[in-house]
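Lecture 7, part 2: worked example. A protein chain together with CU-O-CU linkage.
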Amino acid sequence: EEMDHSTMGDMMEGHMSHDEVVMLNDSTGENELRIPSILEQDDEEGVVYTVRAQRGKTEIFDGTETETYGYNGSFLGPMLRLEKGDNVKIRTINELDEATTFHWHGLEVAADVDGGPHDALEPGEEKVIEFEVTQEASTLWFHPHPHEKTSEQVYNGLAGLIYIEDENSKSLGLPTDYGENDIPLIFQDKIFDEEKQLNYSAAKNDDGTIGDTLLINGTLNPKLTVNKEKVRLRLLNGSNARNYTFKLNTGDSFVQIATDGGFLNEPVTLNEVTLTPSERAEIVVDFSQLDTEKDLALINEDGSILLPFEVSVQSETVSRIPGLMNDFSLTEEEMDLPVTKKIELFGMMDMVTINGKKFDPERIDFTQQQGVTEVWEIYNKPDMMGGMIHPFHIHGAQFKIISRNGEAPPENERGWKDSISVSPDETVKIAIQFKNKGVYMFHCHNLEHEDNGMMGQVKVE
Ligand code: C2O
Ligand code: CU
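Predicted complex, written out as structure tokens:
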């Protein structure tokens, strides 16, 4: 269908080409970073937890209450710490006044506990889910996934972390003191209105809502006090649509030790790391090796100050970064497999599609056999404006990147992934196997794109 100029103009208004994304305000560093509490098990036999989605009021700005959503609290959620091999039971409760779901992003579980849009709980409803943790140590997260309402509910504050630990992660000698030298960092950008409220419908952009105000773990103007030691930062891009390229203001390097779904085989030394929405990276910054006379901060690519560090005393803690951390491999067989599924990401604003189609909960787009590895090829087709990055995510499995535009992926992507950045005109090949059966979503994790239909379904049989 031909579009006339005014339609085109309307559509273009608000379209986020990445060079014109509004900068974040610098963090003034006046508030110590909030560390999410660790979720306690219920007083019951076994590994049993309760997670409730609820509304609340949160003092983000001094002396003002902002209406927010949270899990087991008014804003964001606690950290759920699981061990490989655990048989977990979670009682999920919807105390909101709208439908929601509980999605475990990155967790390899059966589709009926995955919390996709088919699993809505109405207000007041609850559901007990059970699963075994079969995957390795990693940093995952959970968030809602209701049909066409994911972006608004995440924006309002529904997001929490999952740490999986295993024998390997406990024996490596890495920093593991939660909140001391093992720090979760959930990055989210927001727009606050004059009343300091999160007014989603006013803030919303169909091409991905981008804010000027950064919250880390829900903290406005955060700073992090650390000891002069190795500090592990578990970075989660929990934003609706903003991409970040993290670096140190001094230009010093750090090492990346983990991707979305597990440890890299070896630490990778970097000066910056880019995360698109829903991606994670674990990095270690060695403050004992930095010039702490200088003001140190984590900054974004554009120079905005995200997280100033205050370096306090010399620490007694001796942690290390082993040279070998995992046995991840991409086999010859996997690299030689033919492409059996093709995904074409296209469009902008509310005209986004996958393979020319918008999400239809009644339509199965692909089928795949349980336990069989297939190669998917994901292509981001540019549009007349050049196009934009789409962060592509698949539920229920961790996968391996085979190539980006025919080349081996960068060293810090040679590990388990569940979300990948796909740039305009880029083709990414991945090898993926599902351990469990059922219908899983795959979609763009720019949450407005997801809600606008940039999502499909794979049925694992
Ligand atoms: Cu992070 Cu379909 O989700
Ligand atoms: Cu997208």
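The mean pLDDT is 95. The chain is about 5% helix and 40% strand. Keep this in mind for problem set question 3.
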